[in-house]
Amino acid sequence: MVAKFRYSCQSCGYISSRWLGRCPGCGEWNTLVEEQAAIVSHKIKKQASRAMTLAEIPPAGEERFSSGIAEFDRVLGGGIVPGSLILLGGDPGIGKSTLLLQVTGKVGYAGKKVLYATGEESAHQVKMRASRLGLSRESVYLLAETDIDVIDVNIRDIRPDLVVLDSIQAVYKADLPSAPGGVGQVRECAAQMMRLAKTSGTSVFLVGHVTKEGMLAGPRVLEHMVDTVVYFEGDTHYSYRILRGVKNRFGSTSEIGIFRMEGAGLAEVHNPSQLFLMNHPDGNVAGSVVIPNVEGSRTLLVEIQALVSPTGFGTPRRMTAGLDYNRVVLILAVLEKRVGLNLSGQDAYVNAVGGAKLYEPAVDLGVALALASSFRDIPVREGLVAMGEIGLTGEIRPVSYLEKRIVEAARLGFKNCIVPDQKIPEEISALQSINIFKANTLAEALEIAL
């Protein structure tokens, strides 16, 4: 039988019968590579699975086990579910391997069998890193191998409770002629690990590389196959890292875990607001406003800094860091049209301190107050936090989780809070430690803050 070949896009997995310079699926150039098409068998199995009604299926409790790291468990929804397939993505050097190596050590310390399979490092290199992290357990097995079938055999022999495969782009299946990291190789290797996890009850972590656009490398079907997708984010210029869930069949997708990179590995950050408010000026600097940002079940207080200065060119510059650029441009237009600030001849720079990334609409009011404060060169009221979404007509719209935001601000010692004119529970309104000001429009909020 003559082998059939096809062309697969390395970015999105688009399949074509002929080579194309530009992928019709994602629009990328020179990403289609030749690979052998899999031979599909059309034989019907004699022993097929029998369909059952929901009432016939015996109830099974969600027996999670802890990873030993509370921040990690928070993102996974309370722990690791047996038989789950979890994909961890992140930039090179961000700490993915270090995090999972610490997890294997913690799980092994709890008496469970763990297999750490690496296709990117030698066994001695992993041993050196484990020694630096203080990990040495007899229940933790190490395998340096790139053949997925060999890894499969070791898993079935050892029968571990947890498997870490680092990384899915480094392993290959010998039956496929394409190189490791190709669309076909990644898809088939992930499918094999998925079948093993579901049939044996072993939890499997897959480490995935990301592209320069921040997306997971390989076909999009990879994210659909797994149960949970988490991203490990951070700036190389800062010591903290954020573990963010984007898909979770067993819990919330909006949870985050925060870590700090130290010499002995990644340490949990239990009070992240203090981290983002480090060296925050005490109300005597124009252009600085603190906002409460909700990530999952956690409220983080983050400082927003703005700098507005006359432009030296014909077209003013607009730059943002950690905030949506288009959202900031919209807020500048509202400030000019509805409040009367002449910002058309001003450069505007807005930054979320500490490398935080803020995308929820509730940060709009804080950005507007910071820009107005810098433009007028007047500091905002001392001990102030602000929250609210700004509409194009200048109104301040309600935000979610208002009570949580106010309570967190009061806990950290802030005395004043500007909120939208929405219903607030009596127990929150009765707080003696913080003054709550309601504002219907952006102009009212500026009168209160400046």
Automatic annotation (TrEMBL):
GO terms for biological process: recombinational repair. The keyword Electron transport does not apply. A motif (RadA KNRFG motif) lies at residues 247-251. It comes from the Bacteria. Signal peptide: none annotated. Residues 347-450 are annotated as: Lon-protease-like. The middle region has homology to RecA with ATPase motifs including the RadA KNRFG motif, while the C-terminus is homologous to Lon protease. This is DNA repair protein RadA. The gene is radA.
